[in-house]
Amino acid sequence: MADPFEASIEELADQVNRQVRRVRETYGQLGSIESTMTSDDGMISVTVGPEGRVRGIELNTRVYRRLSPSELSAALMREIDRAADDVAGQRRRLMEPLMPEGLPYAEVFGADATLEAFLPRPVDPAA
What Rg, from alpha-carbon coordinates, does the chain have? Predict the structure, then answer.
C-alpha cells in the first residue's frame, strides 16, 4: 500500500500526463486546420491554412468578363477574410479548453494581446 504522499505524486503525474496528451492532440489538430470559402456566385474560391495564409485561389474562367480588376480584388479580399476568420474560429475552439482558468483566450491570442497576459501580477511587498 502506497503512502499518501506517493499516492498524491502519482495522481499529479497522471494529471500532467493527461494534460500533455491533450496538448499534443490539440497541437496536431491545429496543423490541419483550413477553410475554403466560395463567393455566392461561385466565381471565386479561396483556401486558407492554419496560420491564416492563403493556400489556394481558384477563379472561374468567366470571372474576368464579369468583374473589373478592382471588383475582383475586392471579392478576393472578402473571401480571404471570410476563410481567415473561419480558421481563427476553429483555432479558438481548439485552444480555449486548454486556457488556464481566468485567462481569456483573447488576452493571449486576440488582436490586442500583450505580454502582460503571460506574466503574473506584481507582488506588493508591503501587503
Answer: 23
- How many whole angstroms separate alpha carbon 27 and alpha carbon 108? 16
Residues 40-68: pLDDT tens digits?
Answer: 999 999 999 998 899 999 999 999 999 99
Identity at 100, one-letter amino acid code = P
Work out the widest C-alpha separation in the chain, in whole angstroms: 80
CA 96 to chain centre: 9
**What does the alpha-carbon distance between residue 44 and residue 94 come to, in Å, rounded to a whole number?**
28
Q: What is the pTM of this model?
A: 0.74
- Inside any domain, residue 28: no
- The CATH number for 92's domain is 3.30.1310
CA distances from 1 to 4, 5, 13 (A): 9, 12, 18
Range of the structural domain that residue 59 is part of: 34-97
Cell of 127: 501587503
Q: Is 115 helix (H, G, I), strand (E, B) or coil?
A: helix
Q: Which residues contact 49 (CB under 8 A, 6 or more apart)?
A: 33, 34, 55, 87
